[in-house]
Specification:
Helix content is about 30%, strand content about 10%. The protein is α+β, with helices and mostly antiparallel strands and about 750 residues long. The protein has two domains: about 1-200, Biosynthetic peptidoglycan transglycosylase-like (Penicillin binding protein transpeptidase fold, Orthogonal Bundle), CATH 1.10.3810.10; about 200-675 and about 700-745, DD-peptidase/beta-lactamase superfamily (Beta-lactamase, 3-Layer(aba) Sandwich), CATH 3.40.710.
Amino acid sequence: AFLAVEDRRFYQHHGVDWKRFMGALVKNVKARGVAEGGSTITMQLARNLFPKALPYQERSIRRKLMEIRVARQIEQALPKDKILELYMNHIYLGEGAYGVDAAAREYFGKPASQLSIGEAAVLGGLPKAPSQINPREDRKAATERRDLVLEEMAKAGYITPAQAAEAKAKPIRLARNTAGARAERGAYFKAQVRRELDERVGDQFYTSGLRVYTSYDPVAQTAAEEELARQIGAIEAGRFGSYRHPTYAATRGDTAESGNTTYLQGAVILMDARNGEVRALVGGRDYDDSKFDRATQAQRQPGSAFKPFVYLTALERGIAPSQKFEDAPLKVTLTGGQTWEPKNYTPNYAGPITLREALTQSKNTVTVRVAQEVGMDDVIRTAHELGISNEISSLPSTSLGAAEVRPMEMTEAYAAFANGGERVEPHFIRRIEDRDGGVVWEAEEERESVIEPAAAFVLTSMLQDVVARGTGTMVRAVGFGGPAAGKTGTTNAATDVWFIGYTPELVGTVWIGLDKPETIVPGASGGTLAAPVWGRIMSRVYAGRPMPRPWSPPSGVATAQVDRVTGIPVDAACPARGPTYTEYFIGSPPAGEGCYPGANAPYGAVATTGVDTAWHDTEWGAPADASADTSLAAAGIDWPELEAMRRHRATAGAAALPDTAGLPPLPTDGNLPMPRSSAPAAPRRRIPVARPASPPPTGDDGAPASPPAREETPRQPPKVLGTPTQGEPASPPAPAPSTPPDTTQKP
């Protein structure tokens, strides 16, 4: 089989088949590229035996002439049968198998001496491109290649036409042995490794016997796959509400050509936030059924998981986490005079609320107000600087997560929150070595400072509250006790649920949804469906390793005791009127303002609307909207109206919105025009650092260039928009993970 397709005149030439070589040369010149290879088996063996002298990355006349010279020397030193034996024992045939016998056991569970004609033809077709025609990866391509090999074997006289026809009539049947089971675990991770290999060294790698060292963590991968499968199975079983979609067990194998499935899907990413090494990757429930990688390729709306970009922009603008904003219904005036009325998850509103508390409770109305103050263009610039590559529309709904993003890019963005403000690009390969241990390729370290460490720390402290007493409490309820910060995300009608969280070492993303966006179950949220998966994965990952030390404030961060009622630092001029807490500030706490109006009001004398309700995932309207047939305008997101705006912007161009100077006060009628930021951009800083033991990638992975950093805006003392309100109540106990939530109540 190998001789028929790789080198039919092997026993006639002396290392070089000049007829085939010249024919391939002519075809390549006409194609202006590599259309056909002219290497003999002896020439391929030369590359495998001497990878340093004949580097496969080098495509030049010099290397080809050296290859010919070495091949002729091999022919003079060894008999033909020995050359063929060496070749058959060194050739890489995919799935980690070097040599024909190893490949026979990997694919068919038997030694090479027991292979059938058809099975031998499968292996004989692999040297051309083991990553593309591997029967475990692409059964159709492998079958087509096998049939071609059988035809060539018949033409060469190795088998009869009848034998070829008989072998072609049989399907390829692979063995399900230990190697097969190993291939099933981490299949999406391995596919990403192959893609990265193709970028680094091309298909020639597979014939050179190199060793690839990856960032794969088997403990993390096993935990990610098992916990995601466990949770999705529980959802399909109805433990979280009425599930009305096809199940995996009933429809596995009905995958469309696009790779989409009809059953519930999910994705998990676990990455080292310090250097970008991906430890675990789950791109779907079944790689054999759908090779579409939802972790790296899917583009989905993140919902409230996008909100940290809004709040980070506010912190960088000098807005303190203790500054208060009004949590109340509002109308946003859109281009052309249209209005949009975003609402919270429930009709409860807390009145004046701090920036910290608004993020903890995932308040939609406050988030829109904050985005209005800092400008949506700056929020979008923040997202792009952190790694989001998609074009993002400058619409008010973008602040609530209406723009589509890739889960891997969200993971990359949150990694900068975890590591103190440095962007590190995800990668799967640490280094590549030849047979002698020489380093052929190695990931190089280069980090990019995109956030001031002080801003990253203050945002992290706010996201820690999300886990401690906000929408992410299920992380604690399932038993993870280490330092953690993160954010839930739930899209309109509960079509996508997210939790993106991190420790000082690891950042992880969990996404659950259907390939064709539909309501998962009524009342679904990232807090109830995705956050428990993240917590269980982290519990298993850290079960066998030391827990990382909590984050500590970097230079440039100050602390002060803040009154929960007023949001004002406590001092002699403004004593506490209620409970206090330690707040973090970038630079120094606001001083010299004294007590704001209303700060001396008796504790508890202000309005307390909504503060006695349980914490919930306050995102995208009411639970009933998930199954309602009426317009979604009542939920605060009028998609037809916004889609009409997008079409108008695409055809007529976006009309310039009025610029605003400083931080305008809240209009008395509650209407907020959405401004565009006119702040000029400053050059981004690239900070080289010493290379650690586990190197990150070069960054040359095709990711688009990031936009420049924002100009620093002078900090302003915090102000209160509206009247103060009573401090937030204690978070109620989170439900046990085995108890399905009552979908008619707040999650």
